């Protein structure tokens, strides 16, 4: 198996491209580095998002940062404040159609109210043990109906409802924990889902909810190239593109 490449940035590089009037090639490249000296909470940046207002959000291993072009505002976990960030290690960010910021951490899912700057925490409906009381959020993806799909590392895929602040697990395989690790998910026009997992590609039928598991078969040249699936994308023609480890 190839070594996993993790995209951590020791610093944030912002590139400003000045294009020549009649040329597609950059004429000048100006870069600036932002580190903890400039106010960044942590120099291991895991995810980036620019919201509809133009603010740049940075999820790090040491808190959430909002950058307005001049200064950083930092959000961190505070055990004495139930409306603070659930964990300082952030894996993923998403802004929904209602301009709300979703934050996926290694221990849970938060929804940030940008008006009050308070975090609302989601509680899954299928926590059977103390060990399952925390979910490692890998990917956040909004559905057409406004509900949000959550890919996790080891706990399957959840559907979060921003109205009730609840989460329902929609993909789960009890036999093998590795089969419940998902990195990406995509929705096709009919509402069915394709989920990229550590043990293959999973399809969820929109009408029945039935799951179909696609795996690599060395005897079938038309099967998946590898069971470790990193990404999945549905193009405008409803064709499914899958990125695997090999």
* N-end to C-end Cα span: 8 Å
Shape: globular
Query: How much is the radius of gyration in Å?
Result: 20 Å
Helix content: under 10%
User: How would you characterize the largest beta sheet?
Assistant: 5 strands, mixed
Number of strands: 21
The average pLDDT is 85
SS-derived structural category: mainly beta
In the sheet with the most strands, the strands line up as 11-15-14-13-12
Q: What is the H-and-E element order?
A: EEEEEEEEEEEEEEEEEEEEE
Poorly predicted runs are 1-22, 127-131
Roughly what fraction of the amino acids lie in strands?
Answer: over 45%
Our count of helices gives 0
Structural features, described:
This protein has no helices and 21 strands. It is an all-beta fold. Strands 11-15-14-13-12 form a 5-stranded mixed sheet, with no helix packed on it. A 4-stranded antiparallel sheet has the order 3-4-5-6, with no helix packed on it. A 4-stranded antiparallel sheet has the order 7-8-9-10, with no helix packed on it. The N and C termini lie close together (8 Å). The N terminus is likely disordered.
């Amino acid at each position: 198996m190839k070594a996993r490449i993790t995209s951590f940035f020791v610093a944030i590089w912002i590139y400003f491209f000045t294009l020549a009037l009649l040329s597609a090639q950059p004429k000048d490249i100006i870069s600036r580095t932002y580190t903890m000296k400039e106010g960044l909470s942590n120099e291991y940046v895991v995810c980036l998002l620019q919201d509809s207002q133009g603010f740049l959000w940075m999820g790090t291993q040491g808190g959430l940062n909002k950058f307005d072009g001049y200064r950083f505002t930092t959000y961190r976990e505070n055990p004495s404040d139930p409306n603070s960030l659930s964990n300082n290690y952030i894996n993923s960010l998403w802004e929904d159609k209602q301009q709300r910021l979703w934050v996926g951490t290694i221990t849970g899912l938060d929804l940030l109210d940008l008006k009050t700057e308070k975090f609302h925490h989601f509680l899954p409906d299928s926590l059977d043990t103390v060990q399952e009381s925390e979910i490692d959020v890998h990917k956040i993806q909004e559905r057409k109906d406004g509900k949000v799909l959550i890919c996790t590392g080891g706990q399957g895929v959840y559907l979060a409802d921003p109205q009730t602040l609840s989460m329902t697990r929609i993909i789960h395989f009890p036999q093998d924990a590795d089969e419940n690790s998902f990195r990406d998910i995509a929705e096709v026009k009919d509402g069915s889902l394709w989920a990229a997992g550590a043990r293959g590609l999973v399809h969820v039928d929109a009408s029945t909810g039935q799951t179909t598991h696609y795996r690599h078969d060395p005897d079938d040249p038309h099967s998946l190239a590898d069971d470790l699936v990193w990404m999945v994308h549905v193009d405008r023609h409803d064709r499914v593109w899958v990125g695997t480890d090999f």
